[in-house]
Request: fold
Amino acid sequence: MSDRLAKTLFALVFLLWFSSVLQAQAPAWTAQHRLQAGLEHDSNVFESRRDPAAAAATRLAYHGKVRRAGARWHWQALGSAVAQVYPQVSREDKWTGDAQLRASWLPRPRWLVQVGYAGFLKMYFNSNLDFAHLTSDVRLQRALTQRSYAALVWESTRLDYRHFDRFDFTARRVGVVAGGRLRDGWFTELALSRRAVQYLRPATRIGPAGEVVYQPFRQKDRQWIVRWQLSARQRLFWQASVEWLRNRSNSFGYSQDRLRGSLIIAWPLNTHLLARVALLFQYYRYHEPILPAFPIELDVERTESNFLVADLSHNLTDHTNLLLRLAWYNNESAIRGLFYQKVLLFAGLERRF
Reply:
């Protein structure tokens, strides 16, 4: 455990050094960094429905952004790394990291081309639930007026568990997007997409005696997704979205309809205090009995169902913040249709560079 934590800290220091050298040698590049350290209390560390066990963790985090903007090109790289160490339950010790690379190009007036790649990695120090999630996307956008735009999007996604292939999948998504500025500080966007998901596991059906029968072909899901978003950027920032998903599967127990809504609000209480609230709620409707079917996700933290998060950030100095965060979760467990709850409390410091 200590060896991996040392490697994590070394990687964070290297990122800080490299981006500082890059910015010094090429002033056109700009970099921002944040380091966080604190203590986190988890009321249900094992995501249990019946016997929740509480535990405390030391949490170290790094968040960084490097970008360069030109007349027709814009490059941006985002990255973060988080290490969590639980002295009482070492099997929950883990490291998570994600990175995003995005390039934007203006080939001619009114046209915008964006290419992106993102990766998320979760590694346990003393468990075998490691996984990686990779996404690449292309967006072709055209300005319709000074206030509106339309775009075509393509996305490829892959989930890969290190030790459990039956939960791995690949997905392809194509869609259309339209949006724009309603008035000063108000923005909206509507998206429609079609997504095809193929799992490595075989499809299943229910036999005459109620048993699960494996099919000679793999599970395939087809999805329609409609998403609407509205946001305002004034003294008070807020963003609301509603998403409807229709999933149809060739495997028993996986066809479902899902309605999801989210709300994010951020407002400065004074010159030194910032408050933020995030809310997510989802409603599932499965088309078949679900208890005999295998779960879609092995790591139930990967897909959050319902949560309410509130945090306060207080400026101690120009570059140092005191952070307080309280979060409540009501997520779907490994047995679909049954939920577990947990409360997270975090207190720590953040240093900006």
